[in-house]
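re the bet — no i am not wrong, look at it urself. input seq straight from the record:
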Amino acid sequence: MFKIYGSEMCPDCVACKYNFDTYGIEYEFIDINKRLKDLSDFLKLRDTDPVFDHCKEIGDIGLPALIREDGSVFLSWDKYLEESGFRVIGFGDGASCSVDGKGC
């Protein structure tokens, strides 16, 4: 089962949850806006895992962040779905968390 750090305010996170729910993929969603400990845990992960380096360079938050059972982290939930044989279901209005409107 995946652990997903995200936010209900993040359009990418909402789309990820919608798709995972639709396809019955099990996950634990940790909303970093609900508890400071969860935000702190996410920030520690973001500050130490190189998977976030590009996000930090371009000013993205790095959400949703998915953690596999083996502890490895990845950010491309949509690519994961496609590689698993699922079609990504469009969701929302294309909104974004980034200032440039291209990501979260």
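see?? Residues 2-83 form a domain with the Glutaredoxin fold (CATH 3.40.30.10). told u. also Helices lie at 11-22, 36-48, 53-58, 77-83. so pay up
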